[in-house]
Amino acid sequence: MSSRACIIIGIGLMLLFASCGRQHSAEQTVKAFIEANMENSGDDISNRDFSDLGTTRLISDSLIQLMRHRGAPLFKQGISYPDVPDGELYYLRMSYVHQGDTLQNTFYLNPELTEVIAFK
Predict the structure, then answer these.
(1) Which tops the pLDDT comparison, 44 or 72?
(2) Higher pLDDT among residues 70 and 17, named by residue
(3) What pTM, to 2 d.p., does this model score?
(4) In the 8-state DSSP scheme, what is residue 78?
(5) Long-range pairs for 14-19: beta carbons < 8 A, 24 or more residues apart
(6) Residues 6 or more apart from 118 whose CB is under 8 A from it?
(7) What is the pLDDT of residue 24?
(8) Over 90: is that where the pLDDT of 69 sits?
(9) Residue 113 has pLDDT above 90, yes or no
(10) Does the CA dihedral 31-35-36-42 come out positive or negative?
(11) Torsion angles phi and psi, residue 48, rounded to 5
């Protein structure tokens, strides 16, 4: 195998592992948010399934404030959120089963994937 092919394969593997690490970090952040802010700590949900991590610049401050105000069924009211960072936000969708119903929420995270900024 030529050295050029080895370099291309090596770069591809590094990108693959880096993206898997970011996905895992985002999922862990969302799980921690759910435990802290879902009624009953999320104990009564099952079959959690996460989508691929994505980015967006299309979320305005007013939309974030609206999502924060509305919250979502099964979640506590008055959740404390961090400041909204500038630039891109990441989002992660989670579907799950609660009392036989399949539900879905979308969580918006800061660029470091350490905090949930808003959700719907």
Answers:
(1) 72
(2) 70
(3) 0.79
(4) S
(5) 19/53
(6) 59, 64, 67, 68, 81, 107, 108
(7) 95
(8) yes
(9) yes
(10) positive
(11) -65, 135
The pair of three-digit structure tokens given for residue 61, joined into one six-digit string:
């401050």
Closest CA to 34 of 99, 94, 97: 94
The helix (run of H) or strand (run of E) holding residue 54 is strand 54-56
Q: How many CA atoms lie within 13 A of 43 on its CB side?
A: 3
pLDDT > 90 fraction of the chain, expressed in percent and rounded = 57
Using DSSP's 3-state secondary structure scheme, residue 103 falls into: strand
What residues have CB less than 8 Å from 82, skipping those under 6 apart? Answer: 110, 115, 117
Q: Quick one: which of 118, 117, 112, 93 has its CA closest to 25?
A: 112
Q: Tokens representing 65?
A: 């404030």
